[in-house]
Fold:
Amino acid sequence: MAIADSDGDILHYYHISPIGSVTAWLKSYANIPALGEGWVECNGQTLSDAESPFDGQVIPDLNGDNRFLRGSSTSGSTGGSETHTHTIGTATRASSPFNQLGTNTTTDAGSTLPTYYEVVWVMRIK
Structure:
């Protein structure tokens, strides 16, 4: 939101998102303007901005690692695994149409993703 003088010149912008907030941005969507001042993409870079409280700190890499974000009472922790194992129960032929007994199957990260829409994660730095 902006406040303008009687000539329409913008005097001040009010930021709705708090400093340090992370937001989804449709960077590649048609007619989207460039990222505004005070925001950076979350690409793992070291911030060099003397006006920001994050000056000299590494911004989280939320775009390059293709991570899902998960809510918590604290921030900064990571977890999960690129692969995992499914154990199929011990069904028998008589009780199940499946003929696999206690089989372990390892899947790659791409085969277990739900449907998704890609966004660019950005962070308010000042």
Remarks:
- The CA atoms of residues 63 and 119 lie 8 Å apart.
- The chain has a mean pLDDT of 78.
- DSSP finds no helices and seven strands in the chain.
